[in-house]
Amino acid sequence: MFTRKTTLIIPTRNRFNQIIRNLRYFQRNLIYFKEIIIVDSSDKIQKKKLTNTVKKYKNIKLIFSKPSSSRQRNLGLKNTNKKSKFVMFLDDDIYFFKNAFSCMDKSIENETKHTVGFSFNVTSKNKNQLSDKFKKNNIFKLLNIYSDKPGIVTKSGWHTKIINLEKDIYADWLSTQAVVYYKKDLKNIWFEEKFGQYSYLEDLDFSYKLKKKNKNLKVVYKAKYKSPLISKRHGFTFGKIEIYNRYLFVKKNSLDYSYFLIGSLFRSLQSLGTGLIFFNLKSINRFFGNIYGILISIKKIKSIQLI
Questions:
Q1: What is the pLDDT of residues 25-42, one digit of tens each?
Q2: Which end of the chain is less crowded, N or C, counting CB atoms within 10 A of the terminal residue's CB?
Q3: What residue spans of the chain are helical by DSSP H?
Q4: CA atoms within 13 A on the CB side of 243
């Protein structure tokens, strides 16, 4: 199986139980990695528990870091075994289906060498149908803000979800929740640490760099997992981050500022509408965060244009 030639990198913070659950899943299903690198930014008590547990494993390397998903993944990359053929990134809170790794192994084995990234397929029963229909209308498509196809990056810098797939797809980007890359293709490719501690969009930015090099990114629909924290994104701080980090992504990849601003306006109105319709104070706070993020972005765009 591909895992025997793979360095598994898991950034974590205060989720000792989730880390142990995934390690036990690997043991039960006889999934062996060349090495596992856990990059931990936990508080003192959680850090001590994890340290004592990791001592029982021969192939686990524990590295400590300040909180930042981007920084933690970069530290994992820098400490990867030189003989590893693959690098796999894994979030600490997900649940794999029993045959997920065997399905992924078959896909990697049968795929062309031009494909450098392979994502597992996230499944969820919590479908926001109203939100999805709103995003996929013809106006959004004409304005290059969104798409009705999964895994697309539009001119606005907005990307479409990849979830509950019923067939394999080739995408413009891949999530780092559960993804495998050929190590040789990651040379000089790093996660953007300017995205801050929350590191929102770091996986979009990372994988899109590979796509721009004309590399294929594949999502394997039979290799399934669940993510319990997939929809917990609310509040002023996240509202600001989701706009400003999107601006940074647009700037880095020379996408269209005008489409980005239109998309940001629609995103803020969506937050406001959700807050008013469902009496959700967190969504209303997210709206104000969105507006603040737009104002910061406009200021940055003007300063770039003056230069």
A1: 999 999 999 999 999 999
A2: C
A3: 16-28, 44-54, 69-78, 100-110, 129-135, 138-142, 202-212, 235-252, 257-277, 281-306
A4: 31
> Dihedral of CA 96/101/217/63: which sign?
positive
The residue type at 202? E
User: How many residues in total does the chain contain?
Assistant: 307
Report the SS3 class of residue 144: coil
β-partners of residue 218 are 118, 170
Say which residue the tokens 């969104």 belong to.
Answer: 146
- SS3 string, 34-80, reads CEEEEEECCCHHHHHHHHHHHCCCCCEEEEECCCCHHHHHHHHHHCC
Task: Give the integer Cα–Cα distance in Å for 214 and 216.
Answer: 7
pLDDT average, residue stretch 197-201: 91
Which single residue is written with the structure tokens 């993804």?
179
What is d(CA 258, CA 280) in angstroms, rounded to the nearest whole number?
A: 30
pLDDT, one tens digit per residue, over 167-198 is 999 999 999 999 999 999 999 999 999 999 88
